[in-house]
Specification:
single chain, 2 domains, four-stranded mixed β-sheet, three-stranded mixed β-sheet, 3 helices
């Protein structure tokens, strides 16, 4: 039985990476066990690890679910200096999404459910666990 997961992203400049990811995630790390390593629990049992090292070329994107993709995109463009990135949607896909890169080339994305009732049900299910 799988009950937790971690995803690791590597950056060559840990201090700049730590600042960048704190702004991206809009919170301080939950755990810093040693130099060059930090973790955020994004949702219960799902951790994003930031490690000093060489980024993995061609990996990702890691996609993060948000409730208002336009609002978050605006915040990220303002706080992280990200260039305008496009939000996509397709009739057969139940979410809209966007993709951008951190300064080290790691690909990151956001997605938002189009059906707000489904989104509320997903959030409710997570909160009950």
């Amino acid at each position: 039985m799988i009950f937790e997961m971690t995803i690791q992203i590597r950056v060559t400049d840990f201090e700049k990476g730590l600042q960048w990811y704190q702004l991206l995630l809009d919170k301080e790390p939950d755990f810093i066990p040693h130099a060059g390593f930090a973790e955020w629990e994004l949702i219960p049992g799902s951790w994003l690890q930031l490690a000093e090292g060489i980024p993995t070329e061609g990996s990702g994107p890691i996609r993060l679910g948000v409730q208002n993709i336009e609002e978050i995109r605006g915040r990220l463009m303002n706080e992280l200096g990200l260039e305008g990135f496009e939000i996509f949607s397709r009739a057969e896909v139940p979410v809209k999404w966007c993709t951008f890169s951190d300064p080290w080339g790691n690909r990151i994305g956001l997605f938002e459910y189009l059906d707000k009732e489904e989104e509320a049900n997903r959030i409710s299910a997570l909160l009950q666990k």
